[in-house]
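Notes to self after the Tuesday call (sharing in case useful).
The group wants a holo model before anyone commits to mutagenesis around the pocket. I volunteered. Ligand is adenosine-5'-triphosphate. Logging inputs and output together so the record is complete.
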Amino acid sequence: MACSVQCAQDYVSDARVDLIEQLKNLPLIIEKLYQKKVLNNTEVSDLEAIPEKCRKARKVLDWITNKGKDACLEFLKILDLERKSVLPLKLHTWISHFSFGEESDDIQGPTSCHEIRTLLKTKAKEILDQQCKRSNHFFGGNAKQKFTYIPLVLDRDTEKNKPHNKVIHKSKKSKKPRGKKLRSYIPKDTCRNTPEDLLNSQEKSILLVGKPGIGKTTAVKQMLYFWAERHDENLDFMFYFDKNVLTNIATSNLQSLLLDTLIMSNADLRQKAEEITQYLEDYSEKVTIIFDGISGFHDNNILLRIIHHELLPEAKIVVTCRPETEDDDFFDWPTCKVYVQGFSEESIYTYLTQMPDQDPELVNSVVDNPALFSLCHVPMYAFMVAACFSYYTSEGAHKQCTATELYIRIFRHCIQRHGNKKLRHLDAHIKDCKDKILLLAESAFSATKLKTINLEFDYSDSCIAGVFLRSVSVVSPAFARTFCSFLHNTIQEFFSALWLLEKPQKLHEVLQLCQTEEYKHMKYMIPFLCGLLSETTIPLLKCLFPPDQPKGTCHGFFEKVLKTFLHDEPDEEYSVDAVFLCQCLNELQSSEACLWFLERVDYSLDLSEEHLDPHQCCAVSYVISQSRDKPVHLNLENSVVSLSGLKTILRHSQNLRDLSMTLCQVWTAALKCEQQSYLINLLLLCGKEIYLPIITQKALHQQAGEIITQSADPVILHLCCGQNPQQLSDAFCRTISTWLPSISSVHFTTKQNQRESCEEWEKRVTLFKLNLCLQAALHQKENVQTTVKKVTLCGTDECNFLLDLYSHVKQYETETGRKVLPALLPVYQSTRAEWIIDLSERKASLLLEVLKLQTVKKPVELSGWSDEESEVRSFLQCLPYISQLSTFFLDTKKHLSICSIKLVLVQN
Ligand SMILES: Nc1ncnc2c1ncn2[C@@H]1O[C@H](COP(=O)(O)OP(=O)(O)OP(=O)(O)O)[C@@H](O)[C@H]1O
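Result:
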C-alpha cells in the first residue's frame, strides 16, 4: 500500500544501495529515461559505454539525483510501471510504498480496479455494520451504532507464547527452560501494538492466535475498518473471509474466490474479471487478504496456495485461529505471530464505561469484583457483563460470577426480551419454548462436533432461535446456500453443553473425543457443562431441566472429567492440564470436587510454564481456597502471571504451602524479563518483601539489586534455596552485602522436602551469615553493627552467633593476616543485656575472649557445664568479667531442674 510522503529524491537516495545492487534491465530504464527527457543523447551514450552493471546503475542514480526531484519522480514512475522487468520481487513492495500523489493517474491501474476497491470498501462497511447490529441485538437496541475497537493486548513475543492449555498432557521431561524474553502476560499493554501497526508493517504473513472470544475477529475487523475508512488515492484492496465463507469454499480458482460474489450482479465488471485479476496478480503487494477463523485447511488447495504465497506472492495474508490450530496447521509457517491476549485492565475499564445503560456505580462494582473483573479480560465476557448491566443490580455485580452464569443470564435476558415477558413469567415462558431451545442445542452440538459454525437449522427471525442466530448466505455464481450461525462461537459451545445436559449418556463419548486430535476442540464445552451442573446455576435453569436431572448427571461427572484430563502413568511423572481443570472446577463451584482434585494431585498444583491470565488465576485461587486442612503447593516455575492475577491467588496464601518458594519462582521470572514498574508493583504486592533464589546469576542479581537499592523503604530479603546446596557462594555473599544498607532483614528458606538435612542447612546458613558480617566488617565498617542486627533478626540465636562470629573472624585473621576484629568491637561493646552460653557446645575459652572485648561486666546465663579441667580453668578466668551468673542444673534423672540457682558474685 502506498503510504510514503517522502520526496522522490530522498526516496531514491534511501534505497540507493539496494538499487545499485538489484536494478535489472538497465538498458530499458535508460531508454525510458531518455523518452521522458530526463537523460539526453550524450548521457545515454556515456552510460552505454560503461560495461559493468553496478557502475552503470551508480551513474544513472548519480545523474537523476543531481537533476532534482522531478527527475527522480520520473525515475520512480518508470520503476513502478516496469516493475516486473526492472525490479526484483523484493523491491516491489518498496516501490508500491511510494506515494505518487495526483500525478500518478497513469499508474493507478484500470478503472475496473477502482470500482472493485469501491465495492470492497462498501462490503467492508456492511460487514462492520452487521457486527454492530449483532451487538445491538443483545443490548436491546441501545448499543453504539459504530464499530468500536477498544485496544487489545497484541503480543508479538512468540517465545513466551508457546501454545499451552493442551488437553493432551504435556511431558514434564520435555520442558525446556523458557527463553530470556519471558515477559509479563496481560493485562499490561506494554508493547501497544495495534491492528493498524500490523497492517502497515512490512510483514507479509500475520497469524493472530488466541482463545475463544479473546478478540481475534475484532482485531482483524479493526484492520478492515481502518482500511475502509481511509481516504487516499492509493489503489489497494482488502479481502475479508470469515469462518462461514472459509468453511464453504468450493472453488480452486483465485479469480472466483476473490471476485465472484463481488461482481456477481455487475455485468460490466464480470466482463473485466480477468483484467482485474491480472492487475491483482501483477500488483499483489497492494492486496491484503484476511482469513478470519481458519481451522484445518490442508485439503483446501486455494487457501494453501494463498497462505504460502504461491498465488499473489507479495500480498499481505492475515489469518486468525484458535491455539489448537496454531499447533497443527501453522507450526512451520514463516510468519509474524501475534498472540491476542484480550483486554488490559485499562481497556476493561474503558469498555465498561462506554457501554450503553452503564451506571458508574455498577461499573465500579464490577471493577471491584475480582471474579467478574478478571472474566472481563476476555472481551466476549466483558461484552456479556455489559449486556447484563441493563438488569444487573450493583448487589448482583458484587456477587461471585462464573462464565457459565453470565451466559445463562444473557440467555434468559434475551428470551425475556424476545417474549416481552415480565421477570416473574419468564420461567414459564422458557418452559413453553423448551422444545425449540433443545432443538437448537442439539443442532449446536452437532455443528460443534463437526467443527463448523454453520448450522442447518430452520428458523424464522421471529421465533426463539432467531434471538441467538443470524443467517449467513454463502453465495457464489455456482451455488447459493443459506446457513445460520450463532452470534458467537462461544454461544454455540454454551448451547452444545446444554444439549449434553439433556443427553448425559453422550458425556462419556464426548470426553473420549476430547482426547483425540480430530475432536479436541470439543473440550470447550466442558467448562460450560461444569457451570450448568453447578448448584448456583441449577435454579436458573430449572425451567428447562428439573433440578434432579443436572444433579443426577453431576453425580460422578467430575470424576470422569478428572479421569479424562488427569493422566497418571505409573512409570512416568504425570502431568496435568491443571489450569483447565481449575477452570472447570471454578465453573462447577463444588468444594467436594475441588478436594477430589487436590487429593488426586497430592495437593500440588503444577502450573509451571503456564501463562495465567487473570480469569485463570481466579479459577486457581478458587481451587486453593477450597483446600481445608492441607495446604496446597503451587509451582509457578517459569510461569507468567499478571499482578492482578497474583493478587487474587495470594488472597488465599494461608492455604499455600512453601509460599516463599512459589514467590521465589514468581520473582525469578519477573526479574528475568519484567520492566521496572512491574517489579516495583510486585514488591508492593509482596509487602516490601523480595524473594530470591540462592543461585549465581549475575543478571538476575543485578536487576534485584536495582530494585532493592532504589526502594524508598527498606526491603525484607528472603533467600530461597533450590535443589543445589552448593550455591551459597562467596560471590553471592559479596553481592548481598552491598545491598544490606537497603535491607531491613534477611531470611532463609528451604523447601520442606529438601533432601539436605536440616542440620546441614542450618550450618550453611550460619556460615553464610557469618560471611555477610565479615564482608561488612571488611568493606562497610560504619554499617557493621546494623548488619549484624539484620542478619540475626530472624530466629538466630544472637549469643551463639556472636561467639561464632568471633571465632570465624579470628580464623580469617589467621589465614589472611588482615586485622578485622577492631571493626567488630562496637558489636561486642554494645549494650548486650546478658550472655547465654551452653558450654557443651561452645568453649569457655571463646566466651573468655569475647568477654574481654567488653568495657563493662555483663550477666551470664550458663548451661551445659563441662568437667574438663581446661574448660573449668577458662571459665574461672571469665568470672572477673561477669556481673551476675545464672545456671541451670540437670537433676539426677537428667531433667532440667525447675529451680535455678543464682550466684551473685561479690564485686571487688
Ligand atoms: N477490541 C475490542 N473492542 C470491543 N469489543 C471487543 C473487542 N474485542 C472483542 N470484543 C467483543 O468480544 C466479542 C468476541 O470477540 P471476537 O469475536 O473478536 O473473538 P474471537 O477471538 O474471534 O473468538 P472465536 O475464537 O470464538 O472466534 C466481540 O463480538 C465483541 O463484542
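Two things stood out.
Residues 387 and 554 are 29 Å apart (CA to CA).
Residues 1-5, 163-187, 570-575, 893-908 have pLDDT under 50 and may be disordered.
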